[in-house]
Automatic annotation (TrEMBL):
It comes from the Bacteria. It is found in: Membrane. The keyword Transmembrane helix applies. GO terms for cellular component: plasma membrane. It comes from Marinobacter vulgaris. One of its GO terms (biological process) is protein transport by the Sec complex. The chain crosses the membrane at residues 12-33, 39-58, 88-109. This is Protein translocase subunit SecE. The gene is secE. Belongs to the SecE/SEC61-gamma family.
Amino acid sequence: MESKADRSTSGFDAVKWLVVFVLIAIGVVGNQYFSAESLLYRVLALVALALVAAFVALQTERGRRFATLLKEARVEIRKVVWPTRPELIQTTAIVVVFVLVVALMLWGMDSLISWLVSGVIG
């Protein structure tokens, strides 16, 4: 069952998400309105608005869960064993050769079918 505190938190989260969307809308409209201004100033303003919107979004429950997901993903990425350069080159060469062989087979079958169809049609 949902408690009163959970409902008030989710209601407050809705207000925070509304603030995030308003900030994004301000950025879009402001970028169009100030289109005559320098690109540098517009980009700096958009980055500032994006940072504020991200900060507000991270204060919500869903934002906290997303931040936790990113932290856990970063930990998992560190556990990945990346291939060495020779392994990478060898694997890439195998893939390229396989693709060329399949392409030649498809080209041969296409040519054969085309030759047969042109022989039947005349």
